[in-house]
Every structure is written in C-alpha cells, then in structure tokens.
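Appendix B. Chain record.
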Amino acid sequence: MKFSDCKCGSNKFNLNMKGKLICQACGAEFKPFGAEHHKVIKPDGFHFFWAIFTPHFIERLTERVPDADIEDVLKIAAHIERKAKRNKFQCTRWNNKHIIWKYRYNERRKRLELEFVSIVPMNKFTEILDNGYYIKDVQFVEIDFSEELKCEKKKKIRIKKKK
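Structure tokens predicted for this chain:
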C-alpha cells in the first residue's frame, strides 16, 4: 500500500525539525499509515459511534472489492453496529466477501468504536494481518442490509413517590 498524496491532493512535502512530513500546500501533517476515523450518527439522530478504518482494511477493500469504497461501508456501519457485540471479532457477508470488525469502547478516547479489520473471501473466517497478528475465533453474524433502521424508543420508568 502506497500513499503519496496529501488529503488536499498535493504530493509535495517538507520535513520539519521533529521528523514529520508537512504538506506544502495546506500545512497539514502527512500520516501515510494512520487509520481513518468517521463519526456515524445512529438512526435516533442523537447518539453516535466512530467507524475506524485500519490501513489493512482499506488495502483489502480496494484489492478485493474494487467497485466499493469507504462511503459504501459507512452506509452499512449502522446496520453492523446494531447487531455487534462488544470486544469480539465478528463477521458478516457483504459483496460476496466476509467483512471482519470489532466493536469496543476506547478507554483512552472515551468513545464507542466500530473498528473494521479486514475483508476475506467467503470460504475463510480467519485472517493474518500484515504485522503477523492472527485473528481467530471470529463469530459469524447474519445481517439484513436491506431492512430500514428505525429509532427504538425507550420506555420511561415512572417512580411513584411515597407519602
């Protein structure tokens, strides 16, 4: 995976005193191997979670599902979040592939994150990442992406006051 352009489209960078690449056009720090973070609003319009796309996932997305992009995955993220269980690797069918994710609470950033890990062929449930980490014990979850998401209203609990 090779990143050669900044988000603004420029490919000219300067090296600063701290050893970081700075874009000449916009002045932003260039992070070639950082994950992408996207805020996803739940159907109720108030609550949200963060969708994290790892560099490994982005590479597999462009390689194995060339007609899809991150926007397509963001559209199904709310469906996935609804069925996901915390701190477990899970997968489901999407575009004739298995998409693997992990839903967790990030203690350091104090937020819920749906981390998309990889995309694998239909006959596999495991994946070996670039750093040698082996993902096993992946739980399969059946998700219907065609169903419309609705806001679930919580019932109010009334407490009777004692006289």
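Further analysis of this model is presented in Appendix C.
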